[in-house]
Amino acid sequence: AMDPQQRWILQLVWRALEDANLTSEDIRDERVGVYVGASNIEYGNLVVGDPASASPYFMTGNTLSVISNRISHVLGVRGPSMTVDTACSSGMVALDLAVRALEAGHVDTAIVGSISILAHPLSFVGFAQARMLSPEGLCRAYGANGEGYVRSEGGVAIILRRSDYSAAQGDRSHARIVAAGVNSAGRTNGISLPSREAQADLLRSIYQGEGIDLSRLAFIE
User: Which residues of the chain fall below pLDDT 70?
Assistant: First the structure.
């Protein structure tokens, strides 16, 4: 009855804690927020045609909000716990919320993740009917001959801490987030169509606001 996304993100979070040299006991008494990006509820569609087969655990097992809440429940942490659904940008928006909470001092530690599995053909059919999927199975990002995107599965979890707090705790750190930001496309030719101008404005405001030297950028995804 449980959406595999809930189980998978738990495994990823546990591995992230181990990588950070932390245990659940280490963070249980801290101010810990959980921020997860997720938008797929395909697993629950498997029983839509047969409602009588739903178990007592169906609702908690197939609700987006519980993806993050189950992490808080299992680890026993009491900070903000939320699942963010902004479609393709869910994970990045969850990250931005975590960064804002850390900067504001609302939390000392943030568990950030994103998860997506493909479990039912309905979404494939719907996106295909909307002509969003590439008929040749290739995204061709930035290419003039791109005809759609390709769906895939994936999951990630990272542990964020304020730099001063992390240094005091002697944590092992892989990287530092210099800046983050979000915006929206506003009105475009279609509600699902992105705005190049809005995306450029966002990047420009982040770089200028943080004084980032563009010549020092080594990797762009």
Answer: none
Residue 61: closest CA among 116, 119, 6: 6
Residues 39 and 87 in one domain: yes
For 89, the token pair is 């940008």
How, if at all, do strands 81-84 and 109-116 pair? unpaired
State the greatest distance between any 2 C-alpha atoms of the chain, in Å, as a whole number.
60
47-68: pLDDT as tens digits: 888 888 889 999 999 999 999 9
Helix (H) or strand (E) holding 207: helix 196-210
**Do 103 and 18 fall into the same domain?**
yes
pTM exceeds 0.85, yes or no: yes
Counting the structural domains of the chain, the total is 2
Take residue 47 and report the two structure tokens written for it.
């029983």
Tokens of 83: 């699942």
Residues 192 and 85 in one domain: no
Domain span including residue 208: 183-221
CA distances from 186 to 39, 90, 180, 192, 205 (A): 20, 17, 19, 11, 17
C-alpha to C-alpha distances, 137 to 125, 133, 144, 154, 218, nearest whole angstrom: 14, 8, 16, 17, 29
Give the residues across from 84 on adjacent strands. Answer: 37
Report the distance separating Cα 11 and Cα 205, nearest Å: 36
Q: Does one domain contain both 189 and 167?
A: no
Structural domain includes residue 217: yes
Residues 164 and 194 placed together within one structural domain of the fold = no
